[in-house]
Amino acid sequence: MAVERTLSMIKPDATNRNLTGKINAKFEEAGLRIVAQKRIHLSPAQAGAFYAEHKERPFYGELCEFMSSAPIVVQVLEGEGAILKNREVMGATNPANAADGTIRKDFALSVGENSVHGSDSPEAAAREISFYFSGLELVG
Ligand code: DAT
Ligand code: MG
């Protein structure tokens, strides 16, 4: 398995509850290195652009409103098989289905307010990392 990079977001429900340190500890305990990180506050239009692949889904408006409701932490995680490993650390989209010890099991409030985002493929990771970061900001 190759060393990969993946895009992670700590969502408003988690930043509101001061959970960024506990979430980052789960990444680091799983062997994922945080090679870039910044706190930002998206506009609704920026959230809409990030989630453009979901624009036909019934929850798109709610998703964009939530993601722009408070600051988020965007970060790049690096490690062996980082894309899949991060999805495992995150847990299932709906916290009711998330495995014990995952971020969403421990912290998510609902399927919408589910604490974290992680890229789901190498193509998504490349697109999503470049949405937020320039190459100079990735410090491995
Ligand atoms: P994931 O974040 O696990 O990759 P996704 O890409 O299917 O999940 O959806 C993106 C986000 O949209 C998800 O994290 C929360 C929101 N979402 C998904 N399904 C939803 C639903 N049924 N109701 C409300 N929000 C939903
Ligand atoms: Mg997704």
UniProtKB/TrEMBL annotation:
The UniProt record lists the keyword Acyltransferase? no
What SMART domains does the entry give? NDK
Gene Ontology biological process terms in this record: CTP biosynthetic process; GTP biosynthetic process; UTP biosynthetic process
Main localization is cytoplasm
Active site (catalytic residues): H117
Entry EC number(s): 2.7.4.6
Where does the record place it? Cytoplasm
Give GO MF terms, alphabetically: ATP binding; metal ion binding; nucleoside diphosphate kinase activity
- Give every Nucleoside diphosphate kinase-like domain span: 3-140
Give me the reactions it catalyses: a ribonucleoside 5'-diphosphate + ATP = a ribonucleoside 5'-triphosphate + ADP; a 2'-deoxyribonucleoside 5'-diphosphate + ATP = a 2'-deoxyribonucleoside 5'-triphosphate + ADP
Q: Which NCBIfam families match?
A: PRK00668.1 (NF001908)
Subunit details:
Homotetramer.
Matches recorded under HAMAP family: NDP_kinase (MF_00451)
Name the UniProt record assigns to this protein: Nucleoside diphosphate kinase
Give the species this sequence originates from. Szabonella alba
What does the organism's lineage look like at the top?
Answer: Bacteria, Pseudomonadati, Pseudomonadota, Alphaproteobacteria, Rhodobacterales
